[in-house]
From TrEMBL:
NCBIfam families documented for this protein: yccV
Protein name from the UniProt record: FBX21 protein
Pfam family of the protein (one): YccV-like
One example GO MF annotation: DNA binding
Highest taxon of the lineage: Eukaryota
Classification lineage: Eukaryota, Metazoa, Chordata, Craniata, Vertebrata
Xref: InterPro entries: Clp_protease_adapter_ClpF (IPR053189), Hemimethylated_DNA-bd_dom (IPR011722), Hemimethylated_DNA-bd_sf (IPR036623)
Gene3D superfamilies referenced in this protein's UniProt entry, alphabetically: Hemimethylated DNA-binding domain
Residues making up the signal peptide according to the UniProt record: 1-18
Hemimethylated DNA-binding domain segment(s): 121-223
Claim: Cell inner membrane is one of the keywords in the record: no
């Protein structure tokens, strides 16, 4: 529909006022009745022409409708952008929250829950350097579980019937020393598969600085975030 602003409203008012004004003026200042009629007819025709071009024209209304729709689409587009952003923001936060919740119950000694109290039967601690009894690689402990915490199907394939009791023994997550060329970067092993070695400070692994800040001569020093998870190690 046409956009009626202050100027357009003033124009309409003047046109509406012009007709009776012209009529009364012509009554007083016209030379005769025939001339007054002609003047009035011209005024009516001029007013009608302007009105049809501006407010009674289908093209004018179509143009006005297009303008209104374009503004409406712009508003809708902005609203959709805002809605999309809110959905993205809150959806992302919800995903992060869900991921954090899942992290609390994750497998392979990666749980974000605090491991306290520490059972006395857990022989080793985070930061100690170990060697695998069977495969011979060295590495450093970065986490432990009181028993195997891994999907059941993996436990079944990993431990044959004769070794099913190992599922209920402590398990440790290991960053494997890349200098050994073992081919794997991490391992999850039972307590009986590893032994602690002393004096081996250098363990090469890209995640060492994430977990540890240094070496105290007997084991690696945990970063503050890791110490919070394993306060008794």
């Amino acid at each position: 529909m046409p956009h009626i602003n202050a100027a357009a409203a003033l124009q309409i008012s003047m046109l509406l006022f012009a007709l009776p004004a012209q009529y009364f003026i012509s009554q007083w200042y016209g030379t005769d009745s025939a001339e007054r009629i002609q003047i009035t007819e011209r005024l009516i025709i001029a007013s009608w022409s302007i009105s049809t071009r501006s407010y009674l024209s289908l093209d004018a209304w179509a143009d006005g409708l297009k303008l209104w729709l374009s503004k409406t689409r712009t508003c809708l587009y902005v609203e959709l952008l805002i809605l999309h952003f809110r959905n993205w923001y809150y959806g992302e936060n919800k995903t992060k929250s869900g991921a954090n919740e899942a992290k609390l119950h994750s497998y392979l000694a990666e749980s974000a829950r605090v491991h306290s109290p520490k059972p006395e039967y857990i022989k080793f601690c985070v930061g100690q350097v170990i060697i695998h009894r069977r495969f011979g690689y060295s590495g450093v402990i970065v986490g432990w579980d009181v028993k195997a915490n891994t999907p059941e199907e993996q436990l079944q394939s990993r431990y044959p019937p004769v070794k099913q009791d190992l599922k209920d023994t402590p398990h440790y997550r290991i960053l494997i020393n890349k200098a050994n060329g073992f081919g794997k970067s991490t391992a999850y092993v039972s307590e009986e598969e590893i032994t602690v070695i002393m004096g081996l400070e250098v363990v090469y692994h890209p995640d060492m600085e994430t977990y540890f800040s240094g070496y105290d001569g007997s084991k690696y020093i945990m970063q503050p975030w890791l110490k919070k998870l394993y306060p008794h190690d």
